[in-house]
Structure formats: C-alpha cells, structure tokens
Design a protein that fits this description.
By secondary structure, this protein is mainly alpha-helical. Helices cover 79% and strands 0% of the residues. The relative contact order is 0.14.
C-alpha cells in the first residue's frame, strides 16, 4: 500500500519575510528601544542636571503626550506624503531630535527633545502599523505579533547600551550613535525594499479612508486597558521588588530582566501559535496567565515565587497590545492608516496615565494596594471582549 498517496502532504501558505518585512520589524524595534530607554536614562539625567523626581518623570509623560497628539493627525500625513516618506522621514526626525537631546545643556532642552522624538517616532510607528495592515492577506496578525517580538527583543539592549556608555565614558549619550548606526544599517536595505514594494501601489491610497466602526473603538478600549496593565506591571516592577526580603537592589534588577525575557518569550510563543488559535481565544489565554501570575507576584512571599508570578504576568500582558491591535484592524480593514493612527493615542494615554495614577494612589495608600489595578484592568478587558462578541453575533 502506498501510504504517501493515501495521506497527501498538505502545503499551508507561508509568510515570506523579505527585506521589506524585516525592515518593518527592525524599525519597530528601534522605536521601542527609544521608548524604553527614557526610564533607565532618568538616573543619569538626574545626576547631570540636578532634576527632582517630578521633572525627571515628566520626560516619560512628554513622550506619551507626543504619541497622543501625533495620533490625531498621523493618518493625514501618510495620505499626503505616502508610506515610504512618512516612515523614513519620521525616523529621521526622531534621530534629529535625539541629537538635540544629547547636545542639551539644560532640562528644558532634554524635555523638549523627548517630545519632538515622540512626534517623529509616532509618525513612523503609524506608518509601520499601516504597512502591517496592508501586508500579505491573512498574515496581518502574524506580522503584528512578530514585529512586537522584535520590539521586545530590542528593548533588552537598553541596559547593555547604557552600561557600555558608562564604560566608554560616553554616559547616556551613547544612545545616539547606537541608534544612528542601527537606523542607517536598516535604511541601507529597507529603504530600497520599501520603494520596490510600493512601486506598484498607490501609497496614499494605502492609507485607506472612511469612518471607523463601533467595533474598532471597543478594541481601542481593549488596547488602552491592556497597555495600562502592562505598564502598571513594568514601570513599578523594580520598586515593588525592593520589598522582597533583604531589600536587594541587585535582586530587584534581576527581576526586571526576568520580566523582559518573559515578554519576549510571550510574544514569540503567540506569534508561533497565533495562526492556529483564534485571536479572541488567545487574548483570553493571555488574560488568564496574567491573573494566575498576579497573586504570586503581589504576595511577594519569596524571590522564586515572586519571580514566577512576575514572569507569568509578563508572558500574558506583553501580548495585550499586539493582539488587541490585530482585533482592531479586523474592524477597520479598509481604513488602515486611520485605524493605526488612533492606536498610539490609546497606548500613549495608557503609558502616560497608568504609572502616574498608580504612583499617586501609592502615595495615598501604598504600592501593594495600587497594584490591585492589574487584575481590575484585566477584568475590564474581559468585559469589553464579552460585549464585542455579543455585538458580533447580532
């Protein structure tokens, strides 16, 4: 009996990741590096410019404000300039603002530079997300997930680059040559690939048009609460881990590494199984993982259990944005740029508000009490998914 003819091999479609797609992934990683570097740079800025905590913290708020503001008109820029010019022009503007920052002699210039970096970077971010939305049919969600794997991986380089700057007497300013070299290398193969890819397309038409439906806005809320939960975990992680027995700063720093690695692993795993599990179900799984990990993290009984809980929280929450964005695009297939443009408003608002409001709540009560926002935020996300599923059935 010929078993090969009885069981023919099924050939499933595969995503071809050429230079165009890899350049989108890497540029998203570069944007994420820039967003993440602000927090670890704060101690350096405080030492050099004699900043208090409020002024130092305003740098993260300035970046979030830039994301929100740019999100209101980024789709118009893409429609006017096209995808290629918006992406590489936005990244170039981001690099120019970073140059101003490293040359700054006062906190006013560092604060203003961060805001300008956010403006250029967010235009590029929306262009990247529009590129994902207009990617090969059936692979949009996979590209979003894989791109965010790259984003998480790139953020892991932030402490290493800053450590190299300390050893090479460049300090925090090493971020500029690092990012400039990375941008030029990506542009070397990415810009020609994008021009070739867009040569047969109407770049301005790729931006889409029309009104966003209610389903999109439900997923917009899902992204907002998802990112707020992710940042509630990440921003206060090291501070909370200092409460472990021994109050070891080294142990707390190790916990942040665990969180970063779990985020990379979580997004990588989701990108591998995302084409076999419905996105809604995958969101529910990530929510369940986060809820399981939270009590282990929150109880802070000992380092191993706390780190396990933190890792589970990272595995789950790291996928809230990419999966939520994928669901949002499903409700706005013909309006990619506008749908992508409003996503930084959701994520930027969450990044700007969650750490600040939780910090305020911690001042009024304590950080353990404030961290209860994490399960509450996940429950709100669940309610949004339930409402959306009911509307989808009608």
């Amino acid at each position: 009996m010929n078993t090969s003819s009885a069981n023919p091999r099924i050939s499933l479609p595969r995503l071809h990741r050429g230079p165009y797609i890899w350049s989108l992934y890497l540029l998203l990683g570069l944007f994420s590096f820039m967003l993440t570097m602000i927090g670890p740079m704060v101690p350096y800025l405080q030492d050099e410019f004699r900043m208090d905590y409020t002024l130092a913290g305003l740098h993260q708020s300035a970046f979030a404000l830039g994301m929100v503001g740019t999100g209101l008109f980024a789709s118009r820029i893409i429609k006017r300039l096209g995808l290629t010019a918006s992406l590489y022009g936005g990244m170039a503007g981001m690099m120019l603002a970073l140059l101003v920052m490293v040359l700054a002699k006062s906190p006013a210039f560092t604060l203003g530079s961060v805001f300008l970096m956010s403006l250029g970077g967010t235009v590029a971010l929306v262009a990247i997300q529009t590129g994902f939305a207009n990617g090969p049919e059936g692979f949009q969600s996979k590209m979003i997930l894989e791109g965010n794997v790259m984003a998480s991986a790139m953020t892991m380089f932030v402490p290493l680059v800053l450590l190299a700057g300390t050893r090479w007497a460049l300090g925090w300013r090493i971020v500029f040559p690092f990012m400039l070299i990375a941008f030029l290398m990506i542009s070397g193969f990415g810009l020609p690939a994008m021009r070739k890819h867009q040569a047969t397309r109407d770049e301005k038409a790729d931006a889409g048009g029309g009104k966003l439906k209610k389903g999109y806005w439900r997923m917009w809320l899902l992204v907002f609460f998802g990112v707020s939960v992710e940042w509630a975990i990440a921003f206060w992680c090291m501070t909370y881990l200092l409460g472990l027995p021994g109050n070891s700063r080294g142990l707390a720093a190790a916990g942040t590494v665990v969180l970063g690695l779990s985020a990379v692993l979580g997004r990588f795993t989701a990108s591998r199984i995302g084409d076999r599990i419905r996105t809604e179900r995958l969101v529910l799984i990530t929510m369940a993982i986060t809820l399981i990990g939270f009590p282990l993290y929150w109880l802070r009984l000992n380092a191993p259990l706390t780190f396990l809980g933190l890792a589970l929280c990272g595995l789950g929450s790291s996928n809230f944005f990419p999966l939520g964005f994928s669901l949002a695009l499903r409700h706005a297939r013909s309006n990619a740029a506008k749908a992508s443009s409003f996503m930084p408003i959701a994520s930027g608002s969450a990044i700007g508000l969650a750490p600040f409001l939780l910090g305020r709540l911690a001042d009024l009560a304590d950080l353990r009490f404030a961290l209860w926002y994490i399960p509450i935020g996940v429950i709100v996300m669940l309610a949004i998914l339930i409402v959306d599923s009911r509307h989808s059935l009608n």
